[in-house]
Design a protein that fits this description.
Largest sheet: 13 strands, mixed
CATH superfamily of the largest domain: Gcn5-related N-acetyltransferase (GNAT)
CATH architecture of the largest domain: 3-Layer(aba) Sandwich
Helix content: 25-40%
Shape: globular
CATH topology of the largest domain: Aminopeptidase
Radius of gyration: 21 Å
Length: 339
Amino acid sequence: MTSGISLEILDLRHFAASLLRPLLEAEGEVWRERLHWDYGTSARLLMQYLDSRMLPGYAALDGGKVTGYAFCVYEETKAVIGDVFAMPGEQTNRPAAMVAAEAGRPQTPLEIEKTLLRHLFETLQHSPHVERIESQLLLHPAGAHGGAFRDAGFELYRRYFMVQGLAGRRGQAHLEVPRELEFRLWRDDDLMEAGRLISQAYAEHPDSLINDQYRSPHGSMRFLHNIVRYSGCGTFAPQVSHVIFERSSREMVGLVLGSKVSQRSGHITQLCVRPDYRRRQLGRMLLSVASEKFAQEGVQEVSLTVTEANTRAIQLYRSEGYECLHMFDAAVWQRDHIA
């Protein structure tokens, strides 16, 4: 498949990891500068998939050089667009006079990314087994690709990337746990109970529109496995992660999970409280303890993401010292079935 004269869009599975290494290194620099995240673990995992020729997606070639890529993963009848990225500052390998003569040909990184996304949309939306497509392009500012997603029939949900500085945080966590509840560190055998809690906490929640895994205990377990066991969002930090149980029923009513995303930054990957225990300051307590534990690990800042429509959570985070440093879009496409 091609777009214009010089730029080629080819199946990503045709390329060995070594051909994309400069691109992934450039992307790692953007992650570090923009979000203070270490992209190294993700890049190494991507390179393994590339070398196995198992990663569905597209690569952009300009003058024979890989200048961009986009990929997705499949989860039964759902596809998740994992990333799109083009080399910063990469315009073209051809003389300016020839560029001007090639009307409609992508010439900027943003245009290359949009071209890659359009090819991915076309492939996925014409795949009969794909019923749903989700995407959260955390690295890209809100609106950067909004038009491309809307044109393809996606619903967009704006999300905030919020950050709290941890200077002076040690010793500030206050634990006032009701007597009927037990507060303790996360354990590996908490996965099943945590999956049940997440599905309860996200019932009719804005985030369940964005990530359908939250809608069932089974889906929530898949989310947790990715976070806890497969480093889907940094390196899981069990010393930061805590749970709250009812003493009588042994049911989980709250949890916070954290990961280390670089030497200087931690990230809250999950925070939830069962609906009947909300407004009792449990979420605030879990946040506070996680921040203090991160500070004890030498982390300088902690981040989290939240959907713009979740105003109550945003108020809580701001009251705890979080500030919105970046906004990005989540996008969802659902196949319409006509009887």
